[in-house]
Amino acid sequence: METKSEHSKTPVYFWLLAIILILIAIQLVMVTAYEIKYVKIKAGYYEPPPVFETAANNAARKRLLWLENQLAPPPLLVWSNKPPPLLEFRELADGESDADWPELAADDNQIGSFDIIETPSQSSSSRSPSAHLTTSPNAAPNAAPNAAGQVITVTAYYVRQLPDLRTVKVDQRKTIFISSVLPHILRANQELIERRRRIEIDYANGSEDRIRKWAELYAVAGVNDLHIDQLYDELMLRVDAIPVSLALAQAIIESGWGTSRFARQGNALYGEWAWSESKGIKPLSPSDDRAVVRSFASIFDSVRSYMHNLNTHDAYQNLRQKRRQYRDDVQHILTQQLIPTLDKYAEDGDLYIRKLRNIVQTNNLNLYSNAVLANAN
């Protein structure tokens, strides 16, 4: 009986090599046909002023990262691999008010990180939060109430990236998006307030070297020429929190409630630009061949970058001035004052302003103005 020659057998490694080559070919087709390209940024979220990548630009970025580590390293978050907790919407019966709901027990096992009650008059399709909400018994004692007189306590629950929200119903998509992004916004603002306090301490102690380093980190012009008092004044203008409702509204618009390709593949919630293909995703029809939408390793990195951009870029000088002017007002008034200063954030400036106002109003985003983190890590 004849047997097959050993040489006629196909080696296993041949099939492995064939599979690898097929996968590479598929990837090349995707990149060529759809221009899908995503490479995580390699170093931090800082983008120094030069618009195109050069050796000097890379050196400047390394310098900024070194300064940050010297002055105030970014927080280390405990990441969760589970889906984000959902906001819980409850229907009110006729004639019932939120006062009729019992207080939540300290060991309550609700799935939501905070609870929102939806009034019967609201559309079940939009599910925009109403002014009726229950407040957690763990709310920070010194936290200021929102316009409705309540404080929302948000669990410090951090996910690295959003789930795919394209096939999720609109009401649930909004709930998941806000549940996922809100803790990151609150933590990034908390970091800014902590840095502001450190700067105040450094100034009070007469630490000129540290003040100049802070000024360099926050892109203050004339770091080596200005008096320390002038640098401190400019830092107080720049190192400050961004209103929560404004940060949510811009994330909603720029990411399409988390459904955009840039948000899904690159955690890019705010549509920031970079000028090297190694730092982001190339749009299908870019206005500049070298422009990409910046990618980030996590949602938190995207939020921090957005806030740093508003706090340092020359285009938002007016925003920073308005923030100082209305800093002591309630947050929803501050948000309304800052929205018109973002006309340079998008090419359709006036239309973008109207979009922001509409998003804040129709989704009642001012509800989250005085949200506070519980058990922040």
Low-pLDDT residue intervals, each spanning 5 or more residues: 1-5, 31-45, 48-52, 87-148
CATH class group of the domain at 41-80 and 167-374: Mainly Alpha
CATH architecture of the domain at 41-80 and 167-374: Orthogonal Bundle
End-to-end span in angstroms?
A: 73 Å
- Report the total helices: 11
- N to C succession of SSEs: HHEEEEEHHHHHEEEHHHHE
Could you describe the largest sheet, including whether it forms a barrel? Answer: 3 strands, antiparallel
Shape: globular
Number of strands: 9
What structural class results from the helix and strand content? mainly alpha
Strand order, largest beta sheet: 6-8-7
Q: Which percent range describes the beta-strand content?
A: 5-15%
Average pLDDT over all residues: 76
Q: Work out the helicity level.
A: 40-55%
CATH fold topology of the domain at 41-80 and 167-374: Lysozyme
Radius of gyration: 24 Å
